[in-house]
Amino acid sequence: MDSNDPPQVEEEHHQPQQTIIDPLTNQFTSLNDLCYELSSLEDLSSRGSWRSILDKVARARKLHLLHKPHEHLTYLCFNVLALTKLRRYDDALRELDTLENFDSDIYKYESYPDHYPNRSGSMVPFALRWLHAEIPVKLGKRQETIDRLYLLLDFVRTKLKEKGSSMLNGSVCFDAWKKREDFVINSIIGHHVSHKEFTICFKLIKDLLTRDSTDPVLLSKLGYIQMQLGDLEGSKTSFSKVESLMKEENFGSLLSETEYRNLVNRNKALMYLVGKDYVSAVREYEECIERDGSDVVALNNKALCLMYLRDLSDSIKVLESALERVPTVALNETLVVNLCSMYELAYVNHSDIKRTLSNWIARVAPDDFDTSCTRI
Fold first, then answer.
1. Three-state DSSP class for 11?
2. How confident is the model at residue 343 (pLDDT cuts 50, 70, 90)?
3. What is the rounded CA–CA span in Å between residue 235 and residue 229?
4. 18 near 10, Cβ under 8 Å?
5. DSSP H helical ranges for the chain
6. Is 199 in contact with 225 (CB distance < 8 Å)?
7. How far apart are CA 361 and CA 336, in angstroms?
8. Would the pLDDT of 368 be above 90?
9. How far is C-alpha 30 from the geometric centre of its chain's CA atoms?
10. Cβ neighbours of residue 156 under 8 Å, at least 6 residues apart?
């Protein structure tokens, strides 16, 4: 369970001092030791079985199977996530509205000494805080989501300062909060990119790079943003730095060597795309696919380049092959929309072909897949 407050040592009169355990650093034998049947919820979510999660949460609540306060919050978090995935945003919001302020004492471990004699901090899952920020945009309230995400970022950075002052960098707890900071910033960047607010994205990424100037993913994002701003030379410089780091074999801890090399190839391909050199872009994407046949970005973009080269037959084969070979990673709405567009351009009887695709998707897709992308 996530903890949002630093470990504290409480002194009680006439009793020996107790060590307070931070849940982020506490070791559990299994997920189920942490929360009732948590491993089952994790498994269902990894398979996209969101309706089954709703059923499981409803059953646990009806049969009173949740006995500790943090278990109720954990199940509520999975319920809100499942409702959001299924695009039932009003229901998700109603579920969130049943909660008090996240900083309320009723969500602190120390408020329940009988249940948690040695724990301190907040029992609110971090994912629940993030969902609370993200759901308003789904209901047409974009500014509310932006405001909440920036507040969440302030919250995370406050925790980082507290953790940094109480323990060494590199601890499990400190690293977990650093990852949360990156996650929130990337969420914010995603919202600004979707509204073409590239200058804001540029400033956010540059700020992150002041702390780690060798992050290949961040540098690549910076290059993409520079490209959107029309700064092709700046973009080329950012991409070149990523390639230089690779030549120094400075792969870092985030990417494997294959992932890093594919990132470099995809960056090169983007530069070729800007210059409408689709043949060279295809060559870069083919190198990616040769290393990793499940690189969906490379597969999708190779197909698009072939389409731009008026080779519809091969572009369709690329995407159909991807869906057949690696359906778990290839089955996403963007790829399916592109494939259906190609069908419409290539075949007179495209409605029948798309219906066949739609029937296959209905059998294998996760619950949250948006079947309307086939445009039948």
1. coil
2. very high
3. 9
4. yes
5. 31-34, 38-46, 50-62, 69-85, 89-96, 126-138, 142-166, 172-194, 198-209, 216-228, 232-247, 257-274, 278-291, 296-308, 312-325, 327-330, 333-346, 350-364
6. no
7. 10
8. yes
9. 24
10. 177, 180, 181, 184
Distance CA 71, CA 119 (A): 15
Distance CA 77, CA 123 (A): 12
Residue (of 213, 237, 215, 217) closest to 227 by Cα position:
237
CB 317 within 8 A of CB 294: no
Greatest Cα pair distance in the chain: 85
Q: What is the pTM of this model?
A: 0.85
Task: Work out the average pLDDT over 155-184.
Answer: 82
Q: Give me the pLDDT at residue 168, please.
A: 54
Q: For the CA atoms of 35, 37, 41, 43, what is the dihedral angle to 10 degrees?
A: 120
CA dihedral 84, 88, 94, 100 (to 10 degrees): 0
The two three-digit tokens of residue 304, written as one number: 């698009």
Instruction: Give the pLDDT of residue 25.
Output: 55
